[in-house]
Design a protein that fits this description.
InterPro entries: AB_hydrolase_1 (IPR000073), AB_hydrolase_fold (IPR029058), Epox_hydrolase-like (IPR000639). The chain is an alpha/beta fold. The chain is built from 13 helices and nine strands. The protein starts with a helix and ends in a 10-residue tail after the last helix.
């Protein structure tokens, strides 16, 4: 009897998840164009004047989000004077992916899209988990990266993990069962308080969840992709971090000393102490969402790199 009840509950949750997934996708439709790359189809929004002086700015979001978290207000502010490329990472937002992907493969996909857009050099701006992607792009495709701006970005291994739930969700059978039954209804209850905690000690902007389409994360396929990205993150930075001293392009790390999600000391400070052409901006009392807390400062640093950039490719020494 108990087993039958459990099966019935799971079936009801699965049906609710299917219904709510369709509703979320209708509420937050795609707003960009799609580019096919090997292993994925990436959703890209191209904003701002195409003939703007200097390299375009590419904005790449972190975990548990999509490019909406980089568009408001940062992307829209930059697009007033610069060409801005916003990319849903593979498996997130409206981008798809056919398999679990390492940061190296995700970096290659982004580089492929920039090639299709005929963008030879760009300023790469990354947030949080995407810090590892920006650094991997700078290492593997230095001719494409005119400068790198890391906003509270991950760069090095850290003590601890990324949460028990992410580890459980990435296990065979059990993970998909959870993702396609309880994750979405539970996530609807926890999305707002969870996002508020990421902004702390700053307040979350009004209507942020709706404006940035964050609830799309709760769809099973995206939730699984996000969990996989998180549980494989430490191994990726462990592998690539010994090579950061080879980078020759400008690297700016902007981080808050009140960030409890990505440690400024472990990641940003150590990165800037390692790269030859680095600048650290440590913001007192600022938390993890740097692009929302100090967007004018971030825009200013990006524009400084643009104004100082030249047309010569900057190669790593590898």
């Amino acid at each position: 009897m108990i087993l039958l009840i459990l099966v019935a509950v799971l079936a009801a949750l699965a049906l609710f998840t299917q219904f709510e997934t369709r509703r979320l996708e209708q509420r937050f439709p795609s707003v960009g164009q799609f580019f096919d790359v090997t292993g994925a189809r990436l959703h890209v929004l191209d904003l701002g004047p195409r003939d703007a002086a200097g390299p375009p700015v590419v904005l790449v979001h972190g975990a548990s989000s999509n490019f909406g978290s980089m568009r408001i207000p940062l992307g829209d502010m930059l697009a007033q004077r610069h060409r801005v490329i916003l990319i849903d990472r593979p498996g997130h937002g409206w981008s798809t992916r056919s398999e679990n992907l390492s940061p190296a493969l995700q970096a290659k996909m982004i580089d492929d899209v920039l090639g299709q857009l005929q963008i030879e050099r760009a300023i790469i701006v990354v947030h949080s988990l995407a810090g590892v992607l920006g650094l991997k792009m700078a290492l593997d495709y230095p001719q494409r990266v005119a400068g790198l701006v890391s906003l509270a970005g991950v760069a090095y291994p850290w003590p601890g993990g990324v949460g028990t739930y992410n580890a459980v969700v990435t296990t065979p059978v059990v993970g998909p069962l959870l993702a396609y039954t309880i994750t979405l209804p539970l996530g609807l209850l926890l999305a707002e308080p969870g996002t508020r905690s990421v902004f702390a000690p700053q307040a979350m902007p009004a209507n942020y969840l709706a404006q940035s389409a964050i609830p799309l994360l709760l769809r099973p396929r995206e939730f699984l992709a996000n969990a996989w990205d998180l549980v494989t993150l430490k191994a990726a930075v462990t592998e690539q971090s010994p090579y950061y001293a080879e980078l020759r392009m400008p690297v700016v790390a902007i981080t808050g000393d009140a960030d409890t999600t990505v440690s400024s000391e472990i990641h940003s400070r150590r990165l800037i102490e390692t790269v030859p052409n680095g600048k650290l901006i440590l913001l007192p009392g600022v938390g993890h969402m740097v692009q929302n807390a100090v967007p004018e400062l971030v825009v200013g640093e990006i524009e400084r790199i643009i104004s100082e950039s030249d047309t010569k490719p900057k190669a790593a020494s590898r």
